[in-house]
Amino acid sequence: MIFVRYTASLAIVCSLLSHSALAEPTAAARQHVSLDGTWEIAFDAGNKGRAADWHRDAAFSALVEKQKIPVPSCWEELEKDYEGVAYYRRKFTVPKDWNGKVVRLHFDAVNFFSEVWVNNTAVGTHDGGFTPFEFRVDDLLRLDRENTLVVRVAGPILLQDKRIDGVGKMETPQWRGGITGGIWQSVRLVATDSVYVEDTFIEPKIADDSAALHMQLSNTGDQTTSADVEIVIRSTKTPERIVATLRKKYDLKPGLNQHSETLHIPDATYWSPDDPHLYRAEVRVVSADAVSDKWTTRFGMREFTIRNKQFYLNGKPLYLKATFFEGLYPTGVAYPDSREMAIREIRLAKEAGFNMIRPWRKPPPPMWLDLADELGVLTVGSLVVECMGFPSESARLPGWVENEVSESILRDRNRACVVQWELFNELKQPVLKRLLRPMAILSRQLDPTRLILDESGGWAQGANMYLPYQSEPVKFNDVHFYPGGQVNQSQYDRILLIGKTKEEQRAMGLAGLPMPGKNVQPGLMSYLSELGYASWPDIVGNNAMFRERGNPILPATVTTKNLEKHLGHAFKRTGFDKAFPDLRAYCLEEQRIHGIANKRMIEATRTNPEISGYCIHALTDGDWILGAAILDLWRNPKTLAYEMTKQANQPQIVSVHVIPRNVYAGQEAKVSITGINELRSTQAIVTVHVESLDGKTLSTNTLTKDFQHGISDLYTDLIKTDSMRGSYRVRVDVKDPSGRLITSNQRAFDVFEREQIGRPTGQVSVVETGNTVSAHLKNNGIKTIPFSSDLDLSCPVVIGAISKATPDFRKTVGEVKEFVTRGGYAICLDVAGPSLTWGAPNPEPKPKDDDGSWSWIVPRVLTDSDVDQLPLSGKLYATEGNYISRNHIVTDHPVFDGLPTNELMSGVYENVCANKSICRPNRGQYISGVITYDQHKNMDNSLRHYNGIGDVLWAADVLLVTEGNSDGKILYSTLRIMENLGKDPVADKLLVNMLNQVGQSDADGVHH
Predict the structure, then answer these.
(1) Which of 203, 360, 441, 661 is the most exposed place for a label (fewest CB within 10 A)?
(2) Which domain of life is it from (predicted)?
């Protein structure tokens, strides 16, 4: 028996068959028989099949529980969340004229461990769920008769605590988007004569317009044989015309023979996103006066590298605009539901202005990469090696990682679209950190032509980039940054810090701001490889599509169905349904906030000359990042999230700043406009309008400027606000001399008069460590008095900073609570406690939903927060947001008098918006807060890998709680009021509104 098994140790001598060739019309010398279609499957939950010989045809036939399953497909499409072992069987015939042929059985991908038998004879095994492998089987086949293929698959263990074949939970290298168990990609037989092309690596060089073909020719005979090898290169646009050709005779010894030839390509057309021109290479082997094999693949003439701290494509600088892509699909799980769906997502990415897609922790299927080659989008070569603590450490992990690296690179190294290998992401584990350098060197040996990034995020030791043909690393700032939904001036400025020295930061007036990313160093080339925010998809519309076209047992279907149901409960539980009675309208409002945030982040990134590009998280929704993308799972653009991201991606934009965002009347506001131009410098007419939101123009300035290539300051001025009050915007139009609009942008700002802010009518008592609140009140002429246990009930009490609370301070807080139980009113501006994202499991059982899944409404971990422990101790939830939306709802309540209500916080609220909220308080009136979901399924960090999002969650930013049997109330707030007092009039107004609640009644008639 002869078989081929692909491992890293054999990588140089046993390479993979090119996949793009497999879609080509077959030549007589190389024939294919597809084994895709209907197979039989027997799930072996008890792992008893090996002992019972299920791999034998008779034993398999006797099984009662056999089912039909399409190949390719993930087995969880048939058996919900199945983890374990399954046996597959396929009957097939081969042509009679294959007599004397070399026949290989080829699998594109089977997850995870495969054992193969043909006609009851063992063939071989393979470890790894996302890369191809093959075996020679011609000696086992029965020509023109029925043959039997049986494959035992031991899938990954992600959800259950068990071991199969010595492998336990979360130990195998896996994609985070699904179990993807079984034979989830195509299977075929490939027949050639005795001398054939094992593989050919094509090395394009635009310096001299040549293509070097590094061929591996296999002679399966036992004698050296002479063979003519003919190489033909054609343009795919004019396939009838030969661009270059070469014919040469080789003496091929038994086994693998390596030969390289270089062909000049006259007037070469270079592959790029603007012109994705492909060539086709054919390698034909003629042995004994007969065509023994014809191998073919497509490739592109292109060069992608780094020079002068910039990316270069084909000798020209290219600013990278990438988007992150997990590649989850509504019914295909890891494989596109259809070719049309794959085309749609790539086209929508390009139409949004992206020139690169970053597939994440999973090599895309060959069909998807075919389309990326054809449609013209740069891609990152991604490997199934997880991150952030996964996979779980085992002695087998280094070997599996090496296997994934070698097989993934060998599969895709002829792709025009793949311009960089990304080996790891956000490493924590020592076992994986040890592999950084060895895997980079292995990658360089397998492919000298591409950039290699050793670790995205640079968590381990800072990222290293390996330039083409270089084995010495170059330090590189690869930054992951999720500022949240409120990209205020502080967050904007943080992006400006990347790559700057301490001296430069001080000169910019930004010293003291935290630098985004990990192990970021000044003076290095910098790239923001993860950046973005999130929003709900149209949950109502998505559910309609799942009912029509979805698979009811897949997590995506179950998640979205339950999400709509449980969000309805959460809105009613909090009372936020009064602000947003329609879920679809709420989703659209989230998408607006998402779009504003993405746009602002991109503008900041493009304004920093040290940054060479960015990658927006993400292109498509799915799994635990449900909501993170600009397209939903069905590939529908998410309204303003998509459109505003698209606006910011355009080659010519302007970024508008109004500092401060909220202005005290009489204070000057600084307006500055920065131009970003990726095209040639041009003269432009810049018109700056200052206008009210109802369209009334206060001022217009028009000037002629050089709209320079790169980054330039187009305009700076001061706005005098003495006679202004209310909401305004600065609108900028940039036109060419003929009047054609090049780009436009706007930035809103609000002006507050002292009368508009107001002041409390009486005295205020303040309890705090420090004097932040007291000083602010005194500076504004508001009398403060010490707190005492016999304080008049008409005097409100403000509890300020408590982070350094002493026992005496705690005692005083207790006395304030007693004061409230007698009918007093207190405001707590600082709530202390642990910031919860997960915790200890709740042992109480959970009710089940109609579909049998555990309910999200009574989470096992997110128990209600006991408000009696506030303000000194409580359960707080981090609600600033990242790639999960944490949008803050403002209700129509006197606390927000004179401010926008019944909407999501943005704009005027961007400085005071909470970054932590009271997690599910067990009582009280929600005045402002968040409805979202938890990042980790059931709060179990090990289940983050798969099976949907965590529990639906609600939390309060402003909570009004009645104490005792009197009219006493405590108003708890996590809004960032204290740090903005005297700096942002919105903070001042909120405090005054809160103080003025003394003696007032809620809409429900409850007296304060």
Answers:
(1) 441
(2) Bacteria
Distance of CA 171 to the CA centre of its chain: 23
Q: In this structure, what token pair is assigned to residue 497?
A: 């810090």
> Is 850 within a domain?
yes
Helix ranges (H only) for 384-512 are 397-412, 430-433, 436-446, 489-497, 502-507
Tokens 């409404």 map to which residue? 857
Burial (Cβ within 10 Å: 0-12, 13-18, ≥19) of residue 609: middle
- Based on the number of CB atoms within 10 Å of its own CB, is 593 exposed (0-12), middle (13-18) or buried (19 or more)? buried
Query: Is the Cβ–Cβ distance between 732 and 763 less than 8 Å?
Result: no
Query: Looking at the structure, do residues 93 and 181 belong to the same domain, yes or no?
Result: yes
Tokens coding 230: 């003919």
Count of helix runs (H) and strand runs (E) in the chain: 16, 49
**Amino acid making up residue 247:** R
Low-confidence ranges of the chain (pLDDT < 50): 1-27, 838-861, 938-939, 1001-1008
Please name the residue ranges forming H helices in 187-272.
Answer: none
The residue segments making up the domain with residue 284 are 195-299
- Tell me, yes or no, whether 814 lies in a domain: no
Longest dimension (CA), the chain: 110
The full 3-state SS of 290-357, as one line of letters, equals EEEEEEEEEECECCEEEECCEEEECCEEECEEEEEECCCECCCECCCCCHHHHHHHHHHHHHCCCCEE
Distance of CA 947 to the CA centre of its chain: 16
> Over the stretch 864-882, which tens digit does the pLDDT of each residue have?
888 999 998 888 999 999 9
Tokens of 782: 């508001």
Distances in Å between the Cα of 72 and the Cα atoms of 179, 430, 797 are 14, 36, 67
Instruction: Give the span between the Cα atoms of 781 and 832, in whole angstroms.
Output: 29
Contact 297, 16 (CB under 8 A): no
HEC states along 685-734? EEEEEEEECCCCEEEEEEEEEEECCEEEEEEEEEECCCCCCEEEEEEEEE
What 3-state DSSP class applies to 589?
helix
- The answer to whether position 983 is within a domain reads no
Give the domain-ending residue among 252, 270, 299. 299
Q: In b/e form, how buried is each residue of 364-396, taking b as 16+ CB within 10 angstroms?
A: bbbbbbbbbbbbbbbbbbbbbbbbebbbbebee
| CATH number of the domain enclosing 498 | 3.20.20.80
pTM for the model: 0.93
Burial class (CB in 10 A: 0-12, 13-18, 19+), 569: middle
Contact 474, 466 (CB under 8 A): yes
Cβ–Cβ under 8 Å, residues 915 and 973: no
Query: Is 165 found in the same domain as 31?
Result: yes
What's the CA gap between 759 and 768, in Å, rounded?
20
Number of Cβ within 10 Å of residue 284's Cβ equals 20
pLDDT tens digit string along 590-621?
999 999 999 999 999 999 999 999 999 999 99
CATH number for position 685: 2.60.40.10
Instruction: Please count the structural domains in the chain.
Output: 5
Q: Are residues 186 and 206 in the same domain?
A: no
